[in-house]
Amino acid sequence: MDLMRTLLPAILCYLCISLGGAQTVLLNNMYGIVHSPNFPEPYPKEREIQWNISVPDGYQIRLYFMHFDIEPSYLCEYDYVKVYSETEELAVFCGRESTDTELVPADEVLLSPGNVLSVAFRSDFSNEERYSGFEAHYSAVDIDECRDKNDEDLACDHFCHNHIGGYYCSCRYGYQLHSDNRTCKVECSDSVFTEHSGQFTSADFPKPYPKSSDCLYRIELEKGFLVNLEFDDSFDIEDHPEVMCPYDHIKVQAGDRELGPFCGDRSPGRIQTESNIVNILFHSDNSGENLGWKITYTATSSECPVPIVPPNGHLEPLQSQYFFKEHITVTCDPGYTLQKDGEKFEHFQIQCQTDGAWSSSAPICEKKESRRSRSSVASVPTDPIMH
């Protein structure tokens, strides 16, 4: 009911102000009529009137003419009707029909860019042919902000919902609406990677990443492993031609070192962090449509020397390189048994440690005696896992 009372006022309110011979009429209703003086009788000479129409925010003003009969002149020098919104001139009309130098509104409907519109009428010192003037109707129409928003600072990131007098924004599942009520940010600070290799990207990659977000990606490996990062060539983070990464950026924290910030379209490439724990921090501001980044990480570790194979013995697995936490099992040919520090074993296992040394030296293979030897299996303690 309140809205109907606003849209259907019983009384049209005019506030007239005289400014140096020109008359100004202020109109603030949701609809109304403007017409030339004395309409439908011929308008008087030497008159200037301006109607300033305003409606609430969230509305535009629709204006159309029901009658138009103004003295014609070249480029409307004598009598005219001008329509403008603030400082923008929308149209100048005069005459009875459109020519190369005169324009009449006919069936044209004018729409204000915003919530204000002005109609100015001027007549010169003569009206010999008794032109009857004009009559125009105006009404407030709802702005469809969702359709008309071209300003990045005002548009919704994901979804826009129009309502009478305004609009509101919402976000896709998994996103949160920022306090600016238009930007959609993502929760991206709970990712912890513990595998020895993997990859991760900015949210929505290779589509534009979310605005107004602060993301933390953490790689946490056992002590003895070192993390290597490889940034994909498809790297696109908003930058600035003169200032280093003032808007969006990515940083790498590895131990006591901080690398970056990185931005622009040049990939940082390969980074050897020399740490087993690495934090990647990504920040985006509230603007931009950049595509983001992709990181592949791998782990390297301490390398142990290849052990010497004992005579009549075997190493499993036998390979050219051994790294932290890899194991070797030593066995002997049939008729031989492993011996170390006075003990005999059927098989013996050693492990590559964080310092690049084996947990034990390899035993030797001795020929079995005629009597049955007691066999046992040794299990050598390994380094505890440290976080």
Automatic annotation (TrEMBL):
Superkingdom field: Eukaryota
Keyword tags: Disulfide bond, Hydrolase, Immunity, Innate immunity, Protease, Repeat, Secreted, Serine protease, Signal, Sushi
Cell compartments where the protein resides: Secreted
Region (Disordered): 363-387
Pfam assignment, any one: CUB
Primary subcellular site in the record, as a coarse category: secreted
Signal peptide (from-to): 1-22
GO biological process, one term: proteolysis
InterPro entries from the UniProt entry: CUB_dom, EGF, EGF-like_Ca-bd_dom, EGF_Ca-bd_CS, Sperma_CUB_dom_sf, Sushi/SCR/CCP_sf, Sushi_SCR_CCP_dom
Xref: SUPFAM superfamilies: Complement control module/SCR domain, EGF/Laminin, Spermadhesin, CUB domain
One GO term describing the cellular component: extracellular space
Entry protein name: MBL associated serine protease 1
